[in-house]
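Hi support team,

I'm filing this because I wasn't sure whether my run with iron/sulfur cluster finished correctly. The job status page said complete, but I'd like someone to confirm that the output block is well-formed before I use it downstream. Pasting the exact inputs I used:
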Amino acid sequence: MATFLRNEYIFGPIISRRLGRSLGVNITPLNRKVCSFNCIYCECGWNALASSANNFPTREEIKLALEDKLKEMKQEEQDFDSITFSGNGEPTLHPDFHNIIDDTIEIRNKLFPNVKITVLSNSTNLHKDSVVSALKKIENPILKIDSANIETLRKINQPTSKTFSIEKIVSGMKQFDGDFIMQTMFLKGEHNGNFIDNTSEEEVNGLIEVMRETRPRLIMIYPIDRETPAQSLVKLDKVEMLRLENMISKAGFNVVASGT
Ligand code: SF4
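And here is everything the job wrote out:
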């Protein structure tokens, strides 16, 4: 399959339907994926085997690369909407994540004070105080949960930790007092002989229960959009995405769906 591994720390800006003009920041290793999930739909492909090449870029390397890029954009009078942490895996796994966020806030305030900072996270590190406090400092913490059912979640996200639990994710999300964005990928298909479907009424009601507990200010839902490492997954059509959007909206939540 074609994968989308980044070979640079700063990329874009690219146009994002939800975030506008978005400058990407990749703080995971170049050309390698490092993640605490191994999602069957991940556009970066399957996780790389652990190796010494898993070295993360340093805080200083990221700071320098971001500052250089923002200075260049300032000089060229380029405008954009979001500095977005996403890349070859889970950004909160970087051991200096909280310091990198502090650096980013400092540089942003100096050069583009109106630009928002966004982090796309899979929510697996919300048990760490330093990660939660860093995410609370930014405008857009976007936290993933694809199912409230552990069996379904294991099939879709394939968490790498034996101690992974949905309860940990939910209690991590609660710490934001509703000031976060929840993100869910909806899909159907088959992988390794397992039937996968997180779009049933029971599944969506399970997610709505999580929303009731954690009160996200916005929910973003997506269908598969690109090639996936698991080959037998189905992209949901507009009608199905609208049905899911309606269910969540009727439960009283602010939801936006891609692919509608
Ligand atoms: S959490 Fe994101 S980066 Fe990690 S495996 Fe899933 S889709 Fe890929």
